[in-house]
Structures are given as structure tokens and as C-alpha cells.
């Protein structure tokens, strides 16, 4: 293997234990969209079921169908939009989805009349994320309509924080809006039994307002720093590794990689590593990132190529480094959040950007 992502299931379990300091596992909806943030949806789902998690959320109908096919006894909620032509199949499979506007309610009522079925749905409301969901000024009308529907059984309401990691005031405002809108929408409708609002950072920082569930994603995978999650501690589930394929000590100064952006120095030793941007190592890390190798942080030099990249070996490793040795891009020694920051993005994007070409190796240690 030239490169691989090691997925540490024990760290996954430890992260669930950490969330259980805040809510019991019955209240956790594990978010496993986008192939479980790049960790492998089916394997992560299996492991979480073993750990006693029974509720899951995905983003698309295809993800939901795949998971429900293998585990019929778990609760699966789709967090993204469901196209009309999927709704019937999704409901038949007892997968939960959301309605976000009056048009969807109309559609479900119409098809329900035709096939005499009733579907369970969650009502999605917009409390400030500004993505999808019923608006505050629609709450009254929604309540009226839901009291009269015949083929829709609203079982819950949820909404999403936009800035629970960064803006306390705004998050508090969302909490208040959520409460008020829920009251208005569910008034006189006893079938609406479940409410949930909290994502990972909401769960850590706004515990008082947790209701029936939390939807935890990034903290399950440990794509966070201790600083932002204190006093809680999450462990990285994914570590990214690649092998050294070539080592040279330059006899004279010469350029390294595309575009001649880095001039290698005579006498210095450079190693080529078998991973590149097609694997998910961002090109932003050219002349900027580093890898962890035998106790040292080694700089990435020159541009990251599609399948390979070069690193500078510190003096201590000259003559020690060997072809076939393994270097870490992120994991126990370099945080994925640190890498994300160098790339001007968030850990989420780095994790789900590790491409399908990279084998996932599951370990319990
Ligand atoms: C992705 C997503 C989550 C999980 O977010 P994290 O920040 O990873 O915890 C929760 N709710 C919704 C609606 C989402 O789209």
C-alpha cells in the first residue's frame, strides 16, 4: 500500500463515551453522511451499533437506503432534501425525512390520497441557518395546515445551528426561536413528540437546551482540537499515512516539483512520499504543510503533485530514513484541524476529501 487511512475504532468508542458524559446514548443521533465524514459509512455504522447507538442521520436518499438495507432495525433520518420521486420509497422503508416547505406538504397529501398511505415526517424549521426549512412567519399557517392533513403524520421538529462553535449570542437567539416556533407549530398536534437542534458544538456548549436528541458529527470522528472542546476530549479516529518511495541528497542546488517554487539545497536530503492531491492531500499544503516522521515534523517542499509529494528531511534523519518508511499526514501527532487551518478550511472538508483511492484500514487498538 502506498498510502492509507487508518480508522481507529477504539477512538470512535472513546468519543462516544465522551458524548455520553452529556447525554445518554439513546439521545445520540450519529451523523454518518458523506461516507461517515470519509471514514466509511458501513463500517462506522456497524461499530456504532455494537456500541449501542440506534439512531443515525445521513444527507441523501441513497445513503439512507444503503444503510437501512443492512440494518433494518435502526432509526435513519435524512438531513438533506429528498426529491419527490424518492419520497414514497423512503417512507415505505421506514426512513425518516424532513419537509421544508408547503409545496412538499401539498405533494405528500396528493400522493397520499392516490395511494392511501400516511407518512411520518419531521418538520424542518429555519431558526437562523438560512438554508432550508419553514420560516418564523410561516409557523401559524403551518400549524393550521398540519391540523388538517390526512396523509402526513408529523412526529417531530428540528432545526440547525449555524455558529454554535463561534457565536454564543446568535446561538442563544436560535435556541429562543426554536422554542417559540416549536410551541406554535405543535400546538394541538400531539403526534409531534421529538425535538432536536444540537450539532456537535451545540451539544458541548449549549447543554441546557438539549431536548430529545443531539445530532453529533465531527466530535464522533475527533476532527476537533482540545482547545475548542475543553473540558471534553475527543480522539482522532482517522490517521492518514503514506510511504517514502525515494530518497536523495542533492549534490548541487536544484528545483523540486512543478513550477520551480522551491529551490533544493546542495547537501540537503529530500524524500518523495507516495500520496498527492488526488488522494486528498491538499495542494494548499505546497511549501506550507508538514508530515510527522520518526519524531520530527518534516516540511512539505515544492508543489504537492497529483500522486506524490516531496519532504525535506532534518539532519537527524539523514542516513536514517529508508525507502518504505511510513510518514503521518494527520492523526495522533498532527491534528487534522491543524492541517485544515493551513489549507484555509475546516477539518470536515479535509476528512471527507480523502478520496476513494485511499484504502481505509480498520483497527481496534
Ligand atoms: C451535518 C449536520 C450535523 C452534524 O454537524 P456536526 O457539526 O458535524 O456535528 C447536524 N445536523 C445537520 C442538519 C447537519 O447537516
Automatic annotation (TrEMBL):
<comment type="similarity">
    <text>Belongs to the alanine racemase family.</text>
</comment>
<dbReference type="InterPro" id="IPR020622">
    <property type="entry name" value="Ala_racemase_pyridoxalP-BS"/>
</dbReference>
<comment type="pathway">
    <text>Amino-acid biosynthesis; D-alanine biosynthesis; D-alanine from L-alanine: step 1/1.</text>
</comment>
<dbReference type="InterPro" id="IPR000821">
    <property type="entry name" value="Ala_racemase"/>
</dbReference>
<dbReference type="GO" id="GO:0030170">
    <property type="term" value="F:pyridoxal phosphate binding"/>
</dbReference>
<feature type="active site" description="Proton acceptor; specific for L-alanine">
    <location>
        <position position="258"/>
    </location>
</feature>
<dbReference type="InterPro" id="IPR009006">
    <property type="entry name" value="Ala_racemase/Decarboxylase_C"/>
</dbReference>
<dbReference type="InterPro" id="IPR029066">
    <property type="entry name" value="PLP-binding_barrel"/>
</dbReference>
<feature type="modified residue" description="N6-(pyridoxal phosphate)lysine">
    <location>
        <position position="33"/>
    </location>
</feature>
<feature type="binding site">
    <location>
        <position position="306"/>
    </location>
    <ligand>
        <name>substrate</name>
    </ligand>
</feature>
<dbReference type="InterPro" id="IPR011079">
    <property type="entry name" value="Ala_racemase_C"/>
</dbReference>
<dbReference type="GO" id="GO:0005829">
    <property type="term" value="C:cytosol"/>
</dbReference>
<keyword id="KW-0413">Isomerase</keyword>
<protein>
    <recommendedName>
        <fullName>Alanine racemase</fullName>
        <ecNumber>5.1.1.1</ecNumber>
    </recommendedName>
</protein>
<comment type="function">
    <text>Catalyzes the interconversion of L-alanine and D-alanine. May also act on other amino acids.</text>
</comment>
<dbReference type="Pfam" id="PF00842">
    <property type="entry name" value="Ala_racemase_C"/>
</dbReference>
<feature type="binding site">
    <location>
        <position position="131"/>
    </location>
    <ligand>
        <name>substrate</name>
    </ligand>
</feature>
<feature type="active site" description="Proton acceptor; specific for D-alanine">
    <location>
        <position position="33"/>
    </location>
</feature>
<feature type="domain" description="Alanine racemase C-terminal">
    <location>
        <begin position="237"/>
        <end position="363"/>
    </location>
</feature>
<dbReference type="GO" id="GO:0030632">
    <property type="term" value="P:D-alanine biosynthetic process"/>
</dbReference>
<dbReference type="GO" id="GO:0008784">
    <property type="term" value="F:alanine racemase activity"/>
</dbReference>
<keyword id="KW-0663">Pyridoxal phosphate</keyword>
<dbReference type="Pfam" id="PF01168">
    <property type="entry name" value="Ala_racemase_N"/>
</dbReference>
<dbReference type="InterPro" id="IPR001608">
    <property type="entry name" value="Ala_racemase_N"/>
</dbReference>
Amino acid at each position: 500500500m502506498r498510502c492509507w487511512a487508518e480508522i481507529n475504532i477504539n477512538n470512535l468508542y472513546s468519543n462516544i463515551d465522551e458524548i455520553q458524559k452529556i447525554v445518554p446514548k439513546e439521545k445520540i443521533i450519529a451523523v454518518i453522511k458523506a461516507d461517515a465524514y470519509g471514514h466509511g459509512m458501513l463500517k462506522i455504522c456497524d461499530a456504532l451499533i455494537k456500541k449501542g447507538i440506534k439512531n443515525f442521520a445521513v444527507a441523501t436518499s441513497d445513503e439512507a437506503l444503503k444503510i437501512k438495507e443492512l440494518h433494518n432495525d435502526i432509526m435513519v433520518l435524512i438531513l438533506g432534501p429528498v426529491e419527490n420521486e424518492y419520497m414514497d420509497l423512503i417512507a415505505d422503508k421506514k426512513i425518516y425525512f424532513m419537509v421544508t416547505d408547503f409545496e412538499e406538504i401539498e405533494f405528500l397529501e396528493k400522493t397520499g390520497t392516490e395511494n392511501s398511505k400516511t407518512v411520518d415526517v419531521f418538520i424542518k424549521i429555519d431558526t437562523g441557518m438560512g438554508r432550508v426549512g419553514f420560516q418564523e412567519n410561516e409557523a401559524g399557517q403551518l400549524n393550521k395546515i398540519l391540523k388538517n392533513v390526512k396523509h402526513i403524520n408529523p412526529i417531530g421538529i428540528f432545526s440547525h445551528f449555524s455558529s454554535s462553535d463561534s457565536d454564543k449570542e446568535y446561538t442563544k437567539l436560535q435556541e429562543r426561536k426554536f422554542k417559540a416556533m416549536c410551541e406554535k407549530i405543535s400546538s394541538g398536534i400531539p403526534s409531534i413528540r421529538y425535538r432536536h437542534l444540537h450539532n456537535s458544538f451545540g451539544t458541548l456548549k449549549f447543554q441546557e437546551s438539549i431536548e430529545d436528541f443531539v445530532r453529533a458529527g465531527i466530535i464522533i470522528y475527533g476532527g476537533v482540537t482540545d482547545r475548542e472542546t475543553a473540558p471534553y476530549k475527543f480522539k482522532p479516529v482517522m490517521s492518514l499515512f503514506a510511504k517514502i518511495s525515494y530518497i536523495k541528497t542533492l549534490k548541487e542546488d536544484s528545483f523540486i516539483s512543478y513550477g520551480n517554487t522551491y529551490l533544493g539545497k546542495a547537501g540537503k536530503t529530500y524524500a518523495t512520499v507516495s500520496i498527492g492531491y488526488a488522494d486528498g492531500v491538499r495542494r494548499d499544503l505546497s511549501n506550507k504543510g508538514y508530515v510527522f516522521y520518526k519524531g520530527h515534523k518534516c516540511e512539505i517542499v515544492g508543489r504537492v503533485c497529483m500522486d506524490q509529494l516531496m519532504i525535506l528531511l532534518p539532519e537527524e534523519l539523514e542516513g536514517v530514513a529508508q525507502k518504505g518508511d511510513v510518514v503521518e499526514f494527520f492523526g495522533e501527532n498532527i491534528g487534522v484541524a491543524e492541517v485544515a487551518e493551513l489549507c484555509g478550511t475546516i477539518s470536515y472538508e479535509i476528512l471527507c476529501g480523502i478520496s476513494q483511492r485511499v484504502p481505509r484500514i480498520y483497527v481496534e487498538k
